[in-house]
Amino acid sequence: MAQEYTVEQLNHGRKVHDFMRWDYWAFSISGILLILSVVIIGVKGFNWGLDFTGGTVIEIGLEKPADLDAMRASLQKAGFEEPLVQNFGSSRDIMVRMPPAKGEAGGQVLGSKVVSVINEANQPECRSETY
Fold first, then answer.
1. Sign of the four-CA dihedral 107, 76, 121, 64
2. How far is residue 5's CA from residue 15's CA, in Å, rounded to a whole number?
3. 86 within 8 A of 98, measured Cβ to Cβ
4. 10 Å Cβ neighbour count for 87?
5. What's the pTM value of the predicted model, to 2 decimals?
6. Which of 3, 65, 70, 93 is most buried as measured by Cβ atoms within 10 A of its Cβ?
7. Residue ranges per domain, the chain?
8. Cα separation of 103 and 95, whole Å?
9. So what's the pLDDT on residue 75?
10. How far apart are CA 98 and CA 83, in angstroms?
11. What is the radius of gyration, based on Cα positions, of the chain?
């Protein structure tokens, strides 16, 4: 027959941690963080990704380091609205994110136009297009 023990006997000599001593502090800090998060989301908003906003992402590998400011200027000069040009990986890899184009046939057409505009200053190797 198995011997039965009480909780006090099983925990004899062990340190007792009084978690409930901090319940009001923990609840207060959690409430403050929750309210702060809601305020920040209300002020700054969400940074929606391509999945939610639509558009085209073109990843381009260049033979030499990219001059992002010159690429932005040449894309805006070519008539592209709000191009987001940024490095990813190394200084020779760039990502161009374009908002959804109105009246375009698709991401392939937009990608080809972007690569041709960037090709004027650099020699790109277009790795992939996502849209």
1. negative
2. 18
3. no
4. 13
5. 0.57
6. 93
7. 8-44, 50-130
8. 23
9. 86
10. 5
11. 28
pLDDT of residue 43: 96
CA angle 68, 94, 82 (to 5 degrees): 60
Q: Which two tokens stand for residue 44?
A: 């700054």
Fold of 50-130: Alpha-Beta Plaits (3.30.70)
Q: How far apart are CA 99 and CA 97, in angstroms?
A: 7
> Which letter, b or e, does each residue of 96-116 get, where b requires 16 or more Cβ atoms within 10 Å of its Cβ?
bbbeebeeeeebeebbebbbe
User: Residue 129, SS3?
Assistant: strand
Virtual torsion, Cα 7, 8, 14, 15, nearest 10 deg? 100
pLDDT in tens, the chain (131 residues): 688 988 888 888 888 788 888 899 999 999 999 999 999 999 999 888 777 877 788 888 877 787 888 888 888 888 888 888 888 888 888 888 888 766 655 666 777 777 778 777 665 555 544 54
Yes or no: say if 60 and 26 are a contact pair by the CB < 8 Å rule. no
What are all long-range contacts of 78-87, with beta carbons under 8 Å and residues at least 24 apart?
78/113, 78/117, 80/113, 80/114, 80/117, 83/114
As given in the structure block, the two tokens for residue 95 are 């990502």
The pLDDT score that the predictor gives to residue 55 is 79
